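Example record

One chain of 91 residues, shown exactly as stored in the release files.
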Amino acid sequence: MSNHEELNEFWGNLFNNALKDYETTKEYEYLKEKQEQLDTQIFEAYPEDKNPLLYNFAFEIGLDAERKTEFIYRQGLKDCVFLLKELGVLA
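Predicted C-alpha cells for this chain:
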C-alpha cells in the first residue's frame, strides 16, 4: 500500500469515527426522527412502484450529500495540516 493510499485510509477512518460520534448527539437523534417522519409521509403519498423516478432522484441526492460531506471533512483536515505547517508546528 502506498503512502497516499495509507493516508486516504487514515482520513477515511477519522471521518467514520467523527460520523459515529455525531450519531450519538441529540441533534442527530432529532434530525433522524424528523427524517423518518418525512419518509413515512412520502412513502404513503407517493408509493415507490408508481413513482420510481422520485425514489431514484432521492437516492442520488443522498449519495451526493454523502460525497460532499466527506470531501469537506477531508479538505478541513488538509487545511488544518497546512495551517500547522505555516505556524511551524509541523515540519
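Notes: The chain has three helices and no strands.
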